[in-house]
Amino acid sequence: MRRSSLIIGVVIAAACGRSADASxxxxxxxxxxxxxxxxxxxxxxxxxxxxxxxxxxxxxxxGQGPAHNIANGSFAITATIDETGTAVGGTLDIGGGxxxxxxxxxxxxxxxxxxxxxxxxxxxxxxEVTGGDLAPDYGGAGALVGVILDMVGGGYSGxxxxxxxxxxxxxAGTGRGVSDTAPLIPGPPVAALLLLGGLRRRRSxxx
Length: 207
Description:
eight-stranded antiparallel beta barrel; single chain; 13 strands; globular
């Protein structure tokens, strides 16, 4: 069992009509269901404001025993983030075949993200479920889902006026990022997150 805590800033998507706030609150993710993804390329192009994440969905922990391997898994996030760190829309798309589900496992719309203003490799992204075969397990359409993304091998300075990636010599397919995708634990902290635009990671997960 591992427990870690990171204080990070959050920017709520402008499309939601909310602005960033300096407050912080706890954000908890469930241990299951949890989709583990890996070999993830992460890139941000400052001139175009395009944020791109692409990798492979590897395993599904449904909380009912050993994790299930995902066949032909895919993991992708696209978003627009301007030079101030303000997010304006985006999507999450996880595909593959597992335990009779697929090829579309989970789709969601981008709400906002958290990051360490000092830079680093960790990002936390917040989505609203829109579909996919696993959508009911994630709370159904409209439920909140979090993605904890560790870029691994490359990071950013906290300055979104500069491009960054985790690639080796800029070559696609060389990223070593990893991520977990799990539902949020409901309760007052979740409501406060949506109202205040604050986020603090506090997640416990067994490996």
